[in-house]
Amino acid sequence: MSKFFYGIEDLFVNYLFAPLDFFRFMHSWWGANTINWIFSIIGFIAMVYWMKQLKIFNDNNEEDKSISSHSYL
After folding, report:
1. Domain boundaries, the chain
2. Exposure pattern of 9-35 as b/e (b: 16+ CB <10 Å)?
3. Sign of CA dihedral 6, 16, 33, 36
4. pLDDT (tens digit, 9 = 90+) per residue, 19-49?
5. Is the pTM of this model over 0.85?
6. Given a cut of 80, is residue 65 above it in pLDDT?
7. For residue 13, which phi and psi values (nearest 5 degrees)?
8. Residues 3 and 9 sit within 8 Å (Cβ to Cβ)
9. What does the CA dihedral 66, 54, 38, 14 come to, rounded to 10 degrees?
10. Are the CB atoms for 23 and 32 separated by under 8 Å?
11. Distance (Å, whole) CA 33 – CA 20
């Protein structure tokens, strides 16, 4: 059974994460953090989209804001 887990380790370390070693050994901080910046930008765009959707629903008064909308209130 241990060979199965060593096989999974080999797959990820030597094959799937091998392209990330290129970024790991860069001498530029900006270059090494390229993937982090890409994920941050995607997250920011998703947050802006979500806030715009919330504003659309709030402007249409589609949300039930009554006090008895939830039983625990």
Report:
1. 1-57
2. eeeeeeeeeeeeeeeeeeeeeeeeeee
3. negative
4. 888 888 888 888 889 889 999 999 999 999 9
5. no
6. no
7. -70, -45
8. no
9. 50
10. yes
11. 11
